[in-house]
Amino acid sequence: MTVKISPCAYSKVVLHSFRYPHCPVRGVLIAKKGDGNQIHIVDAIPVSHDVAALSAPIEIALVHIDEFCAQKKLIVAGVYFANEALCDTGIDPFSTKIAEKILAQNTNTVILQLDNTKLGVDSSSAGCNVFAHDNNKFWKSKKFHIENEEATLQVVSEAIQSKIYRTLADFETHLDSPTADFLNPAISSFIEECL
């Protein structure tokens, strides 16, 4: 299986973690429908930034995200997360549970883990790890590549420096303020324009 991550998806994942540096963040990865051996992640939808992993908001978010994917002919491809503590490199058990729910619908489900130690304003390499489910019911590290990686890292750096992450809304924010668009079209447009 090969995993390809779009600049938009990678940027949103990193910006979500910068928006809430004091919290664990979680979100959903969206992919194009494709063949069984390739996953092309085209977007990331921020879901939560709460220390307490609550399943009800996640379930509601997944219903909304499924509807969005059906309209756009996309699929839910997995989850992403960033741990709360800088030194925590473990796979988040709550994110794993969400991924296993998605796995029931999509056998090519992935988990993207942000590596907090590699994130910064001027990152020179991708600050994440990708895991896929194997036949033994374990999450194994997978190779991946970010499209146009050098330019993507530059755009993320620009977005961080210009503090665009302050405008990012996740689904949890949307529940508090329904006008907050958790799809973050303005950030998607910013990324596309910068590239």
Automatic annotation (TrEMBL):
Q: Which InterPro entries match?
A: EMC8/9 (IPR005366)
Which Pfam families does the record cross-reference, listed alphabetically?
UPF0172 (PF03665)
One of the record's GO cellular component terms? EMC complex
Report the protein name in the record: MPN domain-containing protein
Q: What is the lineage of its organism?
A: Eukaryota, Metazoa, Ecdysozoa, Nematoda, Chromadorea
